[in-house]
């Protein structure tokens, strides 16, 4: 087996991984990034909407500041986030966005003069601010703060980030997949990696290892996530038995995935004035959320939509019931200019013209707030030399619900922070790579391969579909104790069956069935961790909504779930830690959880 | 249209499986409404042949992973609905790029190499000041840079290009577009002479023989033909200037060449 040594090994070449790599490389470290796919194909590229940063350049963002951004973030998180992390984040977001501009991102800029909003109001953009970075409105925020590049924010950010990585000599080993972390229970030394071009195994030894593999959306069948988002990095961390995952039960659903296909259409549609309609083309959100309407936070909108469908107001289709997203009234020019990708998606994938027809949508799994638990510097709990960044991490900016535009901002801010932590920790650090953990990690991987190719009757895609169905039905937007118990039991049964996985094909070379089979047991463990954490958390907070415990319970549950998976165990071991409250004590979120709104829902239902 | 029975004829070759040589293999699939090649190929892999290699990532035409030849034409498979196609669908991997297996090709290495050659980053001596307000830029300028940055590196333009089939070092429409993106970016301080060194050769703008299949097949409808003409004009002006001994372009000329 070939061995490659480096200072820093980053697993994942999305925005978080590349930003971390760039920062570490700028401090003089040799950095290698592993990526399942060429870096510019990472899921970050799909972020259409925007990046939250309190620049305050627009008429509708006058008075914005990191303080207001902080408040929006903490309220959005339903007080489940670390407030020192949120404070660091909001303060650094303006720096991070300006640095991206310096590196070449063509942010949309302020054009002075009057502008007519879809609501008919006129706002006057100031001549003083001409040419500064512009922003648009997003759900769950007090001010216009989502900075954007036309309709391709993620695309421009990722391409720019990859340009800088190239400039700094960061090596990207694409089409590779980490299969196990090398560690001795106290320090991480790198990873055992499979080359997806030829199927060969390699050892990467690194003084610092960073997990930046994004979310696990694909374990839910219906997800806006790219098809590579299997949560492999989180599964690797869980596999160590010593690194905890934080708040895995916090799963965000996006209100507007298209039907069929689950492709996300951006929050920008509603931010710019789009409506949600039911089967009678009735605009129902004002009935539930008279103030915020379609712009309440994602978890609230998703629940209102599912509730409305359960009341029989959904549009029936061959793919199950859905609702309509209507942007027709925004007009052709607005749609073609600012929502061009949305228009393309509708025309190309659905055969629908959004200028003249409403878009079929339903809530779809979208974001993983939970992840590898780290400190405020991105250092993973449990193993020295291991870090995590971006969606794969839980330094805990998002708590139980993430604001739109905060994930893109988090990738570049956290990447900067984690890259600095790595660089600091490596100064003067000196240790040799012990042989035993390398051999043990190799053995762990190598023993799985012959088992898969020689025996086993279970078929990977069949088990995968069952796992997704269980999660979607029982661990989705609405949850309750009875169904969660069943979900855990059924997933455990799948876990047992996954031990008897066998390949139907030869498994030779870069065989996709082998890749899927190697991934599946880790994915099932993530699924169990989510369901089990959700079962134990007997309250509703943010996106975690228990029908049998509909209220937030700060006395008991103002704390974070930590899940580790001890060797040979069939369930994760859960423990809890307090949530850090430094500035803003728990209160009302101000959208969708008010007594008035609850009463109204009761009256309707 | 509905309920057709589709026959997929798919190129198969796994270089690491010596038991099978290159061949075409057929799969029969019942068509469903709004089926795309992504849904069809996923179905084939999960229900008929788990060894079938292909590359999908975003499945929404933004990542550029899934370009392949569909009945002989380079296209993004995820964005191709089966109801646009006849009942017999022939799939080949994209030509020009190194084959990994079946429908999967190594576009990543080629695009990384291209990015190195054109030094695909903003060249500037300015350092970033974290405490300063961002440098201003007109929105029109930002939009025109963005317009040239929309390439998703799918490789359709290169796969369709006659020059690329004849010479390995040709930058292709995507490489030329990348140059144009930085040439018009006010933040990039490279001079006309710097850019000339990269594109003023047969591997650059002079290699193109003007067949413009790149323009016809670009799934993002990028202005490849216009950019090619634009680059040729700028390269010509740059060379004329150097011939008469003028060092740099003048602002009024910059406008004139647009």
Produce the secondary structure layout.
The complex is a heterodimer of chains A (605) and B (258).
Chain A: E1 2-11, H1 15-26, E2 31-35, E3 51-52, H2 66-76, H3 83-103, E4 113-116, E5 122-125, E6 146-147, H4 153-167, E7 171-174, E8 176-183, E9 188-195, E10 201-211, H5 232-239, E11 245-246, E12 251-258, H6 268-271, E13 275-277, H7 285-288, H8 298-313, E14 323-326, H9 332-338, H10 340-350, E15 359-368, E16 371-373, E17 386-388, E18 393-394, H11 406-426, H12 435-446, H13 448-454, H14 460-474, H15 481-498, H16 512-536, H17 554-557, E19 559-564, E20 573-578, H18 595-604
Parallel strand pairs in A: 1-2, 1-10, 2-7, 10-17, 16-18
Antiparallel strand pairs in A: 3-6, 4-5, 8-9, 9-10, 11-16, 11-19, 12-15, 13-14, 14-15, 19-20
Helix pairs in contact in A: 1-4, 1-11, 2-3, 3-11, 5-16, 9-10, 14-15, 14-16, 15-16
Chain B: E1 5-12, E2 23-30, H1 37-47, E3 67-70, E4 73-76, E5 88-92, E6 99-101, E7 104-105, H2 107-117, H3 139-148, H4 156-159, H5 162-166, H6 172-183, H7 192-199, H8 213-217, H9 224-243, H10 251-257
Parallel strand pairs in B: 1-5
Antiparallel strand pairs in B: 1-2, 3-4, 3-5, 6-7
Any overview of this molecule?
The complex is a heterodimer of chains A (605) and B (258). Chain A has 605 residues and is an alpha/beta fold. Chain A is built from 18 helices and 20 strands. The longest helix of chain A has 25 residues. Chain A is globular. Chain B has 258 residues and is of the alpha+beta class. In chain B, 36% of the residues lie in helices and 13% in strands. In chain B, strands 2-1-5-3-4 form a five-stranded mixed beta sheet. The C terminus of chain B is likely disordered. Classes of the chains: A alpha/beta (605), B alpha+beta (258). The interface between A and B is large, with 76 and 71 residues.
